[in-house]
Design brief:
Blueprint lengths: L2 H16 L3 H14 L6 H14 L3 H13 L8 H12 L3 H11 L16 E8 L2 E9 L4 E4 L13 E4 L6 E4 L2 E13 L5 E8 L2 H13 L3 E4 L8 H4 L2 E3 L7 E8 L2 H14 L4 E8 L2
Parallel strand pairs: 1-6, 5-9
Antiparallel strand pairs: 1-2, 2-3, 3-4, 4-6, 5-6, 7-10, 7-11, 8-10
Helix pairs in contact: 1-2, 2-3, 3-4, 4-5, 5-6, 7-9
């Protein structure tokens, strides 16, 4: 291929990129790279091709091309080629490559092999299922995986599932004076076996309601009162918002993540601790 033809291919690839025609842009980049895999600018071309396939959620291609991009990127300097490879390798469950990618980016990981199960702190993830969008809290297990620690109100989603999220924050939440990022979900990585239930509870005081939540949390289960759920428009959701305690007393719906028998046992225990002011009824399964 002549240099003039290569320049034309690159120009067409960039035009397709600007139009967000990711498939066309990726194809043109790959045609270019088939002839010029190791030019001075090739690392950028490999990265763009891999990123286009990431946008397409073609994880096998993002992984394949991402390895080429990372091989041409400097290590330990926060190069995004390593981050995108870390995501793709995680989704492909190639833990050796994922670990090397995060290290190449400059992240210190605990020693070990296989899935990374570390403490990367809290964050939020914007779930996206069939057009429904909901921001939930997660406990990050690695730079791109997190375990959901809310009971989602979105149908089909569950407390305790593990999701893979993107690396660029789209909004922030402030809780207890600490600002945490809100990431977009890329995919559901590992489902949860805990069913979602709904129950009507009567709590004379907010402290009674919080006691119920603590009781379920202490048993590695979930509880989410309706009064704690806040609705934001899409634009506001991507801004910075302080997470406020909006729980109220009185009768309200509470979403639970627990086996039904265990939920009944804990609800009875909670109600019996303070016979006046605490009660529950109408426990049903919703997913």
């Amino acid at each position: 291929m002549k240099k003039s033809e290569a320049r034309q291919l690159l120009e067409e690839a960039r035009t397709a990129w600007d139009a967000e025609d990711w498939l066309r842009s990726a194809e043109l980049h790959e045609q270019l790279l088939a002839h010029f895999p190791d030019e001075k600018a090739s690392g950028v071309w490999w990265y763009d091709a891999a990123l286009a396939h990431k946008f397409l959620r073609n994880w096998s291609k993002a992984y394949e091309l991402g390895r080429e991009a990372a091989a041409r990127a400097p290590r330990g300097e926060g190069d995004p080629a390593y981050w995108n490879l870390g995501i793709a390798a995680t989704i492909q469950r190639d833990w050796t490559v994922a670990r090397d990618a995060w290290t190449g980016f400059g992240i210190e990981l605990p020693d070990g092999e296989g899935p990374i199960e570390a403490e990367f702190g809290p964050a939020c993830v914007r779930l996206d299922t069939d057009g429904s969008r909901e921001v939930v809290w997660i406990q990050r297990l690695c730079p791109t995986r997190g375990r959901v620690v809310n009971v989602p109100v979105t149908g089909g989603r569950r407390y305790g599932e593990i999701v893979v999220h993107d690396g660029e924050p789209k909004g922030h939440r402030i809780f207890g004076g600490v600002e945490v990022p809100v990431f977009d979900e890329l995919l559901l990585f590992e489902p949860s076996e805990l069913p979602t239930l709904e129950v009507t509870v009567a709590a004379a005081d907010v402290a009674d309601l919080k006691a119920l939540l603590t009781l379920f949390t202490d048993h590695a289960l979930g509880a989410e009162p309706a009064s704690a759920v806040r609705t934001l428009c899409a634009c506001c959701s991507e801004g910075t918002h302080e997470q406020q305690d909006t729980m109220t007393s009185g009768a309200q719906q509470v979403s639970l993540a627990a086996p039904e028998d265990e939920a009944r046992r804990l609800l009875d225990r909670w109600a019996a601790e303070t016979p006046i002011g605490r009660s529950w009824s109408g426990l049903v399964s919703v997913g």
